[in-house]
Design goal:
This protein is mostly beta strands. It is built from no helices and eleven strands. A hairpin with a 4-residue loop joins strand 7 and strand 8.
Length: 125
């Protein structure tokens, strides 16, 4: 079974940047579409970005132009670069995997089979 472990979270000031990583083990990441989701206190979990096995990407409108998702299949690692961070970006960020190859990915969380433990991102003013 595939396992996902996030890292790279932390506390930054408004306008700062971070690069989150998701290490995949137990299977070959190249056969999965991958996604990043987040959940802020008192809010529902939402899709942030995803990338298909072929490299196609989708972003939530709230992060488009600020966040970049990428994958390194040789390293079995998924990344999320988060820039121009705002207070509303404060959340627990989760890595997720959906088994299957294809050109497209989805931000619907129910489509994903495996989840990481989460990495906290805190943005202070």
């Amino acid at each position: 079974q595939v396992q996902l472990v996030e890292s790279g979270g932390g506390s930054v000031q408004s306008g700062g940047s971070l690069k989150l990583s998701c290490a995949v083990s137990g299977d070959t990441m190249g056969s999965y579409s991958m996604g990043w989701f987040r959940q802020a206190p008192g809010k529902e979990r939402e899709g942030v970005a995803c990338i298909s096995s072929a490299g196609g990407t989708n972003y939530a409108d709230s992060v488009k132009g600020r966040f970049t998702i990428s994958r390194d299949n040789a390293k079995n690692t998924l990344y999320l670069e988060v820039n121009s961070l705002q207070a509303e970006d404060t959340a627990m960020y989760y890595c997720a995997a959906r088994r299957g190859r294809g050109a497209y990915c989805t931000l619907f969380q129910t489509a994903y089979n495996s989840w990481g433990q989460g990495a906290q991102v805190t943005v202070s003013s």
